[in-house]
């Protein structure tokens, strides 16, 4: 990562260069600001090599649902992911389009059966049809909202067969007490959604995490979930 932001090869990274690069993580400005404050220990607006690695580590923690704090630095997390289409970055040298899908075949068969039982129209399920399945998990509404946000990859307010499988995968992870990530891991992006430009997978999440915090316009089910939860209980 360092050569991408340290073009002068001076062994340090300026705040302006780091900001552009860290934005590609898909995390909110608030989280990135916290990461910068923790990494820039002397407050000079410049990161040396060691501090830059701390920032990368904190990005990885945030992307995997861990606290952004120095205590998280020693926890085992996968490498951070950045949505730069020009380089494969830290995917073990593999372009994300070649990554095996995290949803296993036998699980996909189960998820497809649930999908078909919900009467999809033109291969799509609306938020209203997915909502009861999500609520049935008894997970907190904010977690279910994030599950929807991550699984509605093309942001059309509907889930197709592959997106529904992503939602179910995330729900089962949450039920196993695994944190739901803040941005969709490359391995979870369905192969059908990885081309031509969705190599990074998380691109639509960047505007959504920054701009849809006010009214949940692009996330109808989240609004529905929040409003209707007491009734279902």
From TrEMBL:
GO terms for biological process: endocytosis; endosomal transport. InterPro entries: EF-hand-dom_pair (IPR011992), EF_Hand_1_Ca_BS (IPR018247), EF_hand_dom (IPR002048), EH_dom (IPR000261). Keywords: Calcium, Metal-binding. SUPFAM superfamilies: EF-hand (SSF47473). Residues 206-233 are annotated as: Disordered. CDD domains: EH. Residues 27-62, 139-174 form the EF-hand domain. PROSITE patterns: EF_HAND_1, EF_HAND_2, EH. It comes from the Eukaryota. Coiled coil: none annotated. Pfam families: EH. Residues 1-78, 107-195 form the EH domain. GO terms for cellular component: clathrin coat of coated pit. One of its GO terms (molecular function) is calcium ion binding. This is EPS15 factor. It comes from Menura novaehollandiae (superb lyrebird).
């Amino acid at each position: 990562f360092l050569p991408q932001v340290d073009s002068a090869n001076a062994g340090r990274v300026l705040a302006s260069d780091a900001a552009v690069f860290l934005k590609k993580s898909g995390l909110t400005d608030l989280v990135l600001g916290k990461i910068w404050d923790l990494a820039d220990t002397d407050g000079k607006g410049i990161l040396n090599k060691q501090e830059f690695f701390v920032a990368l580590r904190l990005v990885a923690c945030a992307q995997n649902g861990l606290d952004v704090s120095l205590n998280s630095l020693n926890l085992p997390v996968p490498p951070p992911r950045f949505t730069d289409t020009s380089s494969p970055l830290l995917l073990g040298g593999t372009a994300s389009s070649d990554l095996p899908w995290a949803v296993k075949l036998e699980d996909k068969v189960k998820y497809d059966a649930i999908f078909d039982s919900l009467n999809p129209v033109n291969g799509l399920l609306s938020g209203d049809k997915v909502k009861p399945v999500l609520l049935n998990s008894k997970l907190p509404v904010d977690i279910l909202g994030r599950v929807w946000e991550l699984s509605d990859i093309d942001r059309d307010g509907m889930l197709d067969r592959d997106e529904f499988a992503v939602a179910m995968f995330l729900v089962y992870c949450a039920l196993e007490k695994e944190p739901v990530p803040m941005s969709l891991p490359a391995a979870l992006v369905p192969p059908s959604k990885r081309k031509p430009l969705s190599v990074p997978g998380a691109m639509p999440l960047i505007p959504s995490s920054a701009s849809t915090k006010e009214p949940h316009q692009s996330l109808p089910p989240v609004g529905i979930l929040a409003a209707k939860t007491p009734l279902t209980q």
